[in-house]
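Re: the request from the purification team.
They wanted to know what the chain is likely to look like in 3D before they choose a buffer screen. I agreed to run a prediction and write the result into the notebook, where they can find it.
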Amino acid sequence: MKNYLNIFLLIAIFAGVSSCKKAEESLTPSGVNMIYTLPQGNNSFDQTIVNYYNNYGSYLLYKFTERDAYWTPTGWRRPTPSDAPSPWTGTDVAAADPNAVAAQLDLLDKSLFKLYPKSFLKEFMPVKLLLCSKVDSIYTTYVFTPVYTPTRNAKKIPAFYSYDNIYINYGDATVNQMSAAEKLFFLARVNQVFFQSINDRGLIKATNDFILSADYSSSNASQAVAYGKGIVGTYISSSATTDWAAYVMAMVTLSEADLNRSVPNTNTSLVGILNPTKDTNGLIKKRYNLVRNYFINTYQVDPQVIGNKSRGL
């Protein structure tokens, strides 16, 4: 007998609401109750999806509506041509082919779920993971002569975060044709997007030790000045919140070798932030350790291990 799990996402739209923990993410448009039922079918992989829900409280959906994919409290995010001269922008998705979902779930399990303790995933996974056959980043190119012509273009990406869900690509025949490089890129991107969703929802905030370890009260004339103060985010309008997120993203997207590489201190990327060329006063290394040890001691997650894996190490 099928095990049906229903969720009624009761709605209330408030001014200035942003998605937070799952208990606070029960927002849908115009007061309409959204119902998700698991399993969505009677395929062999459907019980795997039910198990993910039971373990982590997130819905892995291979059948979903445009509302599931594109609605946010501030508007619909489906990429459409804006009024001229604005460009096409956004992310375009399509639901997974059921014939590919089993392999897609296996890829996702190896690239994401197996890298974290169950408790961490249960607390921080978003409400929905949409299993897709297409996740395209949409952008515009232009021809200016003889006639001004904007053209819609699409670039395939492995994953993308939007409000209360993560789009997961490779729910099509290409999942069985992925090269080792493509699998590594998928792992890197899906973990980057996972931590982006955590940061954007404000679920893991900068600690007091971190906040007090740098001077955010005075402005920075350049990125090099910011580096000298232990600030690795943008030197313009820096804050503890954006800086914390930058440290986290440095660890989950770059290897330790990348972080220790020598690059000019005019370089604004996160590469080389632990090298003395950028870390002129040793404050970046100190703050890096504050963030890394916080994750290890609090969640039993080492974000630098994720970054090393994303680089094939």
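For the purification team: The chain has two domains: 42-200, 208-310.
Please add any questions underneath this entry.
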